[in-house]
Automatic annotation (TrEMBL):
Residues 245-379 form the Acyl-CoA dehydrogenase C-terminal domain. Residues 29-116 form the Acyl-CoA dehydrogenase/oxidase N-terminal domain. Pfam families: Acyl-CoA_dh_2, Acyl-CoA_dh_N. This is Acyl-CoA dehydrogenase family protein. It comes from Streptomyces thermoviolaceus subsp. thermoviolaceus.
Length: 405
């Protein structure tokens, strides 16, 4: 972690408004930015970085005020993720996933379950991880009296060793019924492996995890009453909600890339010797490129904020969410996900055109922005996001709720 001393957030009042929380995220991002390149290169477990998120109160953003939470909504959470991601995409991802897993009980669980979990999470400043990859039936759940027993292996487990609690997901033996439960991350039988070694998002603790008979009470099975799941359309809002986390992660990384590149261009990029300009900032192609990339980024940010507003209306009245409303929202999320993916990849690639050959030096780490975006945007094929939009336009077809749509 940076040798720069972060602000002592413990002596300062808790932010009250959305603007205050976003400003606090900016302060945290400023600390993270001071040594982002070195930390990316080292790839060490980000204990100090997560502690900074806790000390600043950002982990409690969505929690109830009565228990020490920020009492904010998803619109603010997305903006906070975007702000943190400008400095460090890995920490932005960790925080965004934390928000989703913290909210998962409300999405899937009973009122009694989510009120308990949210109160404890805010009071104790829990950091959430998730051993969830529902594409594969790789974790089997069995019953043993009043307990559920999770056994298997997950390829990915974002948050792993830096989390206080982990959301587990598995399939009841011999069925297609999935079950989610929140368990302490130090639960017996839960083993996180240090095998995340990818080109980007290096500090997300996204390696594999083994579940060797992890036990949890039946009462912790989210949304189950008397061992029967209580379905609601709102249950399926987990996918568009986390996809908007992805959108703001990409936009934040792209914004950070532009800011970092512009600072380099102002101070270090040299004008082309045949261009007739004394300063790089007067080169027409450089001015044009920054204008082009900024306009594209601003456009997607505006769309992302508009879609977040639409989603918040659904979160505000969960029991009133209809299949039509959910489907229309997913289409909008798919649209902004597709645009954010394309623009973030373009921005993080083209910044080298306006910074110059010397900007490829490893010590500068400008490549981390592209590596981070490229890595995470492969989460699910963007072509299928465009397909959702196209089918809706041509046939009025709503996306079928799946683990990816």
């Amino acid at each position: 972690m940076s040798t720069v001393t972060p602000p002592d957030f413990t002596t300062r009042p808790t932010p009250r408004t959305a603007a205050d929380w976003i400003a606090r995220a900016g302060e945290v991002a400023a600390v993270l930015a001071t040594d982002a390149v070195e930390r990316d290169r080292a790839g060490a477990t980000p204990y100090a970085e997560v502690q900074l998120l806790k000390d600043s109160g950002l982990v409690t953003l969505l929690g109830p005020v009565a228990h020490g939470g920020g009492g904010q909504d998803w619109r603010t959470a997305y903006r906070v993720v975007r702000e943190i991601s400008k400095a460090d995409g890995s920490i932005g991802q960790l925080l965004g996933y934390h928000y989703l897993w913290n909210w998962a009980a409300r999405l899937v669980g009973t009122r009694e379950q989510w009120e308990h979990i949210e109160a404890e999470a805010a009071r104790n400043r829990w950091f959430f991880g998730g051993a969830v990859n529902p594409r594969d039936k790789d974790v089997v759940v069995t019953e043993d009296g009043d307990d559920l027993v999770f056994t298997g292996h997950k390829t990915f487990s974002t948050g792993s060793k830096v989390s206080d609690v982990t959301v587990l997901e598995g399939v009841f033996e011999g069925t297609d019924r999935h079950v989610f439960a929140v368990v302490p991350s130090d639960s017996e039988g839960l083993t996180f492996h240090d095998d995340w070694d990818n080109i980007g998002q290096r500090l997300t603790e996204s390696g594999s995890v083994t579940l060797d008979g992890v036990r949890t009470p039946w009462s912790s099975a989210a949304g189950y009453v008397n061992k029967q799941f209580q379905p609601r359309v709102y249950n399926t809002l987990n996918v568009p909600t986390i996809q908007l986390v992805f959108v703001n992660l990409y936009l934040g990384i792209a914004g950070g890339a532009l800011e970092t590149a512009a600072a380099y261009t102002r101070t270090r990029t040299r004008p082309w010797l045949h261009g007739g300009h004394e300063r790089a900032v007067d080169e027409p192609y450089i001015v044009d490129t920054y204008g082009d990339l900024t306009a594209k980024l601003w456009a997607v940010e505006a769309l992302a904020d508009a879609v977040a507003d639409e989603g918040q209306k659904l979160h505000d009245d969960p029991d009133a969410v209809t299949e039509q409303a959910r489907g229309d929202f997913e289409v909008r999320v798919a649209a902004v996900k597709a645009r954010a993916t394309d623009v973030a990849l373009e921005v993080t690639n083209r910044i080298f055109e306006v910074t110059g050959a010397r900007a490829t030096a490893s010590a500068l780490g400008l490549d981390r922005f592209w590596r981070n975006v490229r890595t995470h945007t492969l989460h699910d094929p963007v072509a299928y996001k465009r397909r959702e939009v196209g089918r809706w336009v041509l046939e009025g077809e709503l996306p079928e709720p799946t683990w990816y749509s």
